[in-house]
Amino acid sequence: MNKPMTAPINEQTTDFNAWASHMQSRMENVLEANMPLASVSPMRLHEAMRYSTLGSGKRVRALLAYAAGEFCGAELEKVDIPAASVEIIHAFSLVHDDLPCMDDDDLRRGKPTTHKQYGDAMALLVGDALQSLAFQLISQDKLLKSATQKLQMLHLLALASGSRGMAGGQAIDIESIGMLLTRTELEHMHIQKTGALIRAAALLGAYSADVLDTEKVQAIDHFSKAIGLAFQVVDDILDSEADTQTLGKTAGKDKLNNKSTYVTILGLSAAKHLASELHANAIAALSCYGREADLLRHLANFITQRRF
After folding, report:
1. Whether residue 243 has pLDDT greater than 90
2. In this structure, is residue 4 part of a structural domain?
3. Count of the separate structural domains present in the chain
4. Average pLDDT of span 253-273
5. Is the pLDDT of residue 306 over 90?
6. What's the rounded Cα separation, in Å, for the pair 85 and 82?
7. SS (H, E, C) 168-237
8. What is the pLDDT of residues 218-228, one digit of tens each?
9. What pLDDT shows up at residue 12?
């Protein structure tokens, strides 16, 4: 963003909201340009991939990649594909999470889930194809000139989405249904299930810079770990307080499925206090930096203060 955020708070918020809206639109255009056309065979699979990915979502992970990229001096265009790849991995995870064999949900982002719209088998293939596409896009990105840079990104995304990241966290989640987890066990699960991909999004933005500033990368790492966990805590709070129409997905599903959440383990008030603590930790990770870290600070506010 060209204009530094040194204005009064409400003006800064307006600037951030304008930036976020612009970057969300940009990400939608990048995704649109890189998704297979529904007119290309296999047409129904490609149609379902587009249905699952385009036209909705807050694009929080893409915003994190763009903000971290700007913080580290990356050219905007070089962040596009890494940011899109994380969004595609996220879309794949939602398609699979909603399947009857997993969370069995009928609503996602305010519309029927992919398996309700296209059937279970097609939804399974959509997730598989989206996962492959995310890695394909980074591997063939012509703006990333360094092979080492690409390998670093591919390795990071693979770890974040595999058994030591998102998939592993989901496995723990499934095996824990009906069990009352400790806070430590719940945190371990969500560091993998939710936090790993959020951390990857921010680091992919940082890795898009031609020259890495190791101190800034370390700051982003600390920031993203705290804000990734805060994201899940806020999700649990919203699941207990908001309705289905507001959330765009079935409200109260975790309680219905007898899953442990930060609200069920800590209580609503303590969960809100934890979200505030994690937000403070994220902000503290950027304490050595000035205006160049303002986008990340505003994103931390956005994530922890969101209402839907």
Report:
1. no
2. no
3. 1
4. 88
5. no
6. 5
7. HHHHHHHHCCCCCCCHHHHHHHHHHHHHHHHHHHHHHHHHCCCCCCHHHHHHHHHHHHHHHHHHHHHHHH
8. 999 999 999 99
9. 67
pLDDT, one tens digit per residue, over 134-147 is 999 999 999 998 89
Return the CATH number at 129: 1.10.600.10
| Residue 160 · residue 199 · CB < 8 Å | yes
Residue 44 inside a domain? The answer is: yes
Longest pairwise C-alpha distance within the chain = 53
